[in-house]
Amino acid sequence: MPMEPKLSHYINAASTLDTSNLEKKIRIGILGSFTLNGLEEILQVKCAEKKISASIFVSGYNQYNQDILNDKSNLYDFSPDITFLILDTRSILGNFFYTVYSLSVDQRKELIEKKSEEIINLLQIFTKKSKSKLVVTNLSIPTYSPYGICETKAEFGLVEMVINLNSKLVNYAKDNPSVYVYDFNGFVTRFGESNIFDFRQFFFGDIKINLEFLPTFAEDLMGYVKAMMGINKKCIVLDLDNTLWGGIVGEDGFNGIKLGPTAPGNAYVEFQRSILALNQRGIILAINSKNNEDEALEVLRNHPHMILREENFASIRINWNDKVSNMKEIAEELNIGLDSMAFFDDDPVNREYMTLNLPEVLTVNLPSDPALYASTLYYISDFNVLKITDEDIKRKDMYLQEKKRKDFEKDATNLEDFIKQLDVKLKIKKADQFTIPRISQLTLKTNQFNLTTKRYQEEEIRQFSQDGNMLVGCAQVEDKFGDNGITGVFIVKKENTKEWMIDTFLLSCRVMGREIEKGILSHIINKASENKIERLKAQFVPTKKNKPVENFLPDCGFHKEGDYWVYPINSSFKVPDYLGISVE
Asked: 272, 305 in Cβ contact below 8 A?
């Protein structure tokens, strides 16, 4: 795992932290059943490293019940965006942690039912009173048992009780989009109970996460923060020699590289398997390698032990150009930001060059031992999303389809002919339980074709969709090469009987340049006309990244009135006739 700085580093760094110039802001609540001193400072520093200003509320020692139950508590006054409720087994079970076998089997079942109901009741109360995301930890499964080796013989024994309670938490969270369960038991398993739980710190100050491991724990929590802020990485860019296989193919040859079922080649196989698993859930892959292209492609296509094949990569740069230039080309080809990319290269010189020239790219410090490559990937919290949508799972196929579109575009005589021959079909869909997660995800992540770059969590989109004064929808785009999925979003406020205001209008970079935005706008105009609306208003809020949408409103017939762009509904709006538009 990547080495974390000590707690003292974060304490010192937090004392001199200046976040006044950071645009992104988040409010974090920390509630716990034990002492968590230092977690606030660690999260503040880690957020600042990601260009986020974090305001943090820390509940009093073991005061989480009171803070959640009291409507007028400081917790609700603070109004967090995300809240971490950190619980431990000893606190929840109390004296029964040691005396559980003084109860009958039925009493033990009743105890777990009661404890799980108490926790879930708190979760329900909090989510009703707050708009915050809530991340609750499960309980670590104790290795201690007063029954010793007979623990596994006991009916509904201590271990089974904790597993049962954890299962109830997970089942509750599955049906509640505001609640997530952090696998604290997995964290303890990963590093060992004897490392995480230090009796000396426990007796000194009821500290149940060893201070040495508190920064690592905080890094896990940052996975939720990054996902919520939409700053997660969606593309892994890989070197080849000594990264995906051992040795240098140009020197060692096809048969000489280390890749296969025995050491050291099996370490590279394991690393590739881990990457493929991410690719299958939606992380894009690309290659950035200094190599002879023919020799490298031969390995990708024909080596019997390669897990990743040429078709897994949405962009390939195998040449002798510098890697920074290659990285910029990859970002341009995929039409994603450099800040969406993570770079893996075994060479520290290449990594340093990338870090200095493209600091927005996450350059991963791979260890010198390839046996640790896979575990390094496991512990990176930058690939998390709050929900894995159908579009995420299909993303790898969508980018491969995009390569075919671009090849097809090269043969077209002009842009209009190209779009006509694509046979684009636009389906306008309403916001419902199936589309709301994707709508939220797009508002959090889309930067380029986005009029206002307002960010909305899933719960907010759900509230909008249930509000009769709001129009919320999305657009699914298909063409002859395949389904692009839901790639457009619109949110309109019905301000009064004469005016509607476009609150959000965005388009994924994947489908820019095909006039799809005009099809979506025509739907909004038609809905306004049906409701006898006279004027449609909108704003363009410029950012560093949304220049592609700068001229969209005037190009579509909007005229400027003060701070707003206005479109008279009685004006005729021309939709490209080659767009096939349907409304769900």
From this structure: no
pLDDT-derived band at 395, boundaries 50, 70, 90: confident
**28 DSSP β-pair partners:** 56, 82
Task: Give the DSSP H or E segment for 487.
Answer: strand 482-493
**Cα–Cα distance between 82 and 75 in angstroms, integer?**
11
Structural domains present in the chain: 7-229 (3.40.50.1110), 235-383 (3.40.50.1000), 412-583 (3.40.630.30)
Residue 382 dihedral angles phi and psi, to the nearest 5°: -90, -5
| pLDDT per residue as tens digits for the range 279-337 | 999 999 999 999 999 999 999 999 999 999 999 999 999 999 999 999 999 999 998 89
CA angle 519, 525, 528 (to 5 degrees): 145
Higher-confidence residue: 569 or 409? 569
SS3 call for 428: strand
Mean pLDDT value across the chain:
95
What's the Cα-to-Cα distance from 69 to each of 28, 128, 443, rounded to whole Å? Answer: 18, 11, 32
Backbone angles phi, psi at 474, to 5 degrees: -150, 170
| Nearest-10 Cα torsion for 214, 219, 223, 224 | 40
pLDDT at 403 over 90: no
Partners of residue 245 on adjacent β-strands: 241
